[in-house]
Amino acid sequence: MVGVVAWVLVGIVIGWAARPVIYPAITSVIYERKGNVIDGAAGDLALLSQQGSSTYQTAYPDTSRTIDTVGIAPSILIPSILQLIERQKVKQTLDVLQKNTMYLTDHEDLDLAFQNNLHQLHGQQNWRILSQWVREFLVAGYTDSILYNMEASITLHQGDLLAAIHSLFLAKYYGETEIESANIQTDIENLVIDMMNQYRGNSASIGRQLALSVMQVAMEKQPENPLFGLEISVLYADSGDTSLAIETLNFIPYSEKYQDAVVALKARLLSELNNTEQVTTAIPLKQVGNHFHVTAIINQERTLDLLIDTGATTTALARDTISMLKAVDILGTKEGSVAISTANGAAEVDYYRANLFAIGEFAVENFELLEVEMGGSETLDGLLGMNFLSLFEFEIDQTNRQLFLTPKVN
């Protein structure tokens, strides 16, 4: 008798453990329950519900049946939920998850199947079914990054760029890994690039106002993104607001990738702002600590490394530099002496004249230079003062390390 009982108990244990395998395998069988015909994965849930609580029942909108699922262990429900996902049963899948307080991210196999299903629908461009999954789960309060990413694809397919970029930023916000966030950031920037390319190509679907609205969202989310700052500056300029475009360019952080485009646009806009007949030129600067150096050429023979000093009235060269230039006959004898004010009080220094002094394409003849003590600097040739800079409308762009020069109109 004891042996019989033992074998019965063993059979019960084996049967219970085998349920996740056995039940999905018989889902093609038609179950009769309360006078309703239930097939497939829904039939699994009906059968499984007989093992669980009958506190309440899950109602499926597309059928007249009700199925108990509450109280069934997740390990028992998962195989049937996987089949619901495979059969694109959106509402049923969501309903079972909600009634049993199951979260996709808590079950790796469910989460993977769910994501793979969305990717498959996206690859098939099955926008109708994909939209159902995305809409139902977002409305239910799910915030998975993939849902917002798919929502962006759907709205982009519909031509709603504004909604698409909103969804992409939400997808990035809810991204769980750095790689995922980086990929979404690339998607955001590609959306902007594609949109602006269409705008520049005079696409009928991308007007200035739409492009500006999209870029305003992008700037609100990432105000220091060089690409966004550059593109919205283009739109401001095209709208006739040159000053706002230049102001925006001034706040763009330095970027190796976009520096040339930022500098070129700013030079063009400054030319338009100052005088339509004058061309603004950008001169590259070298930053040393908190100071900016510029390269000058004297008498078309020798380059000089000069620190820009807007507080200096006259351009000044170090004594060693003056001596070197005199030794190679680039400078002649001194023209005379002048009194200057220094941090240590008044001083008298010698001054010289260069036949030609140039920075970039701008050259000045008969240019006055002072000879000063540079405080022991071995690499600095001198200071660029206002006797050169005042000849131009100038701006020092510290972010992009550029000196913008526009000749003044006489």
CATH topology call of the domain at 283-407 = Cathepsin D, subunit A, domain 1
Question: Mean pLDDT, rounded to whole units?
Answer: 83
Share of helix, binned: 40-55%
Major sheet size, sense and barrel closure: 6 strands, mixed, barrel
**CATH A-level architecture of the domain at 283-407:** Beta Barrel
Radius of gyration: 37 Å
Number of helices: 16
Label the overall shape: elongated
The CATH homologous superfamily of the domain at 283-407: Acid Proteases
Intertermini distance: 119 Å
User: What structural class is derived from the secondary structure elements?
Assistant: alpha+beta
Q: Briefly, what CATH class of the domain at 283-407?
A: Mainly Beta
Count of beta strands: 15
Query: In which order are the strands of the major sheet placed?
Result: 7-8-13-9-12-11
**Ranges with pLDDT <50 over ≥5 residues?**
20-67
Overview of this protein structure:
49% of the residues lie in helices and 20% in strands. The chain is of the alpha+beta class and 410 residues long. It has a 6-stranded mixed beta barrel with strand order 7-8-13-9-12-11. Strands 5-15-14 form a 3-stranded antiparallel β-sheet, with helices on one face. The termini are far apart. The chain is built from 16 helices and 15 strands. The relative contact order is 0.06. Among the domains are: 124 residues, no CATH class; 125 residues, Beta Barrel (Cathepsin D, subunit A, domain 1), CATH 2.40.70.10.
